[in-house]
Amino acid sequence: MAGTIAVLDNNDGAVGVAPGAKLYGVKVLSNSGTGFQSWIIKGIDWVTGRKAEFNDGSGDGDLGIDFAVANMSLGGSGIDSSCGSNAYHKAICNSVAAGVTYTVAAGNSNADLRNFVPATYDEVLTVTAASDSDGIPGGLGGAPGCRTGEKDDYPATFSNYANLLTDQNHTIAAPGVCIYSTWKNGGYNTISGTSMASPHIAGAAALYRAKNPTATPA
Hints:
Blueprint: H1 2-6, H2 37-56, E1 69-72, E2 76-77, H3 87-98, E3 101-105, E4 116-117, E5 125-131, E6 154-155, E7 171-175, E8 179-182, E9 188-191, H4 194-211
Parallel strand pairs: 1-3, 3-5, 5-7
Antiparallel strand pairs: 2-4, 5-6, 8-9
Helix pairs in contact: 2-3
């Protein structure tokens, strides 16, 4: 995810959507990718706290951070709720109110995203996965090479999707099939998922924020 967002454009390996953007890693899950919502809430609250310190100038040293975008390539089953009735949703609402834009993975169950959190929350930008094999529109490219059953310029077969009646205002698609990017231990890898789509939008949001520094999450 970090590489898709910000890896340098230096003709070596992959390139990020916002090359050279400053990144912070906030660990909220175990090394195997599992954990509790309480861990995620603590991470969100940490981001909110650093943003709030930056906003009011009370940060000590580098504690105040002007977080523009937070990418959450994670999720689980759940339903929508109000900001005040659910601790997970409340944490995100508070962070967005502080000025942090959240991009989140829609999920990989080929199901309605309204049954997954945080994807169903209206305050986040939920990213579904699209398949694009040639980098240009028109659907004339060949099938992606790393997965069978996918087509050029088409929704990924695994991607959760939006309910057009309720989720169209906070859902967007991005490339999520056969994404080549940085990998652990200094290498590169090609993988697929809405977790690969979400950082594309995080990078795009970061670019927009850099050009429009007073822009709000809305």
